[in-house]
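The instructor's notes for this session suggest beginning with a concrete chain rather than abstract definitions. Hand out the sequence below and ask the class to guess, before any prediction is shown, which regions might be ordered.
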Amino acid sequence: MPDLTVFIVDDDASVRDSLGLLLSLRGYRTAIFSDAESFLQALSPDWRGCILLDIRMPGMDGLALQRRLRELGSCLPVIVITGHGDVDSACEAFKAQACDFLEKPLDQAKLTAAIDDALSKYALGRHASEQRSHFAERLATLTPREREVMDLIVTGGHNRDIAEKLGISPRTVEVHKARVMQKLNVDGVAQLVRHSLGKR
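After discussion, reveal the predicted structure:
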């Protein structure tokens, strides 16, 4: 995943340097920040990857940054790292949807496994988001009648039932149904239902 970056946010210069070196040697692209504030100032909606985030930092701590990222709608997965691990911090991190919680000194194998998992989750989430976006664009090309027919198909309506409900012939329903499938680029009712539910 060469276009994805591991964003390291830690106030300890030695930790930042060692993590940056280790991850670069292992082929990861990295970006390094010394505090939450500088990370938020630089944050861009174009960023792709995951965040390696220390909990205890001067100013805004890691958990507060996590909450702020959620408020901003960030979809970057967060791996929390700390030298002061405790149950309460771990619970709060996971409540804020951290995908992992690692204690310092970091085990290299666990760290890289957590990063790979986070980057995979990000890539899958982005792919699903792009699919929803494409489906929404295609959905906008439907006529009001085609949209009515689609909604009734998705809720389990059969051609005769749909025809009766809309006051049209079953043959006309078939025509609308074929156009819906073509415009939405789906192969059948099952795929139509899956995409439609994903959109909603």
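Then share the key points. The chain is about 60% helix and 10% strand. The first helix runs from residue 13 to 25.
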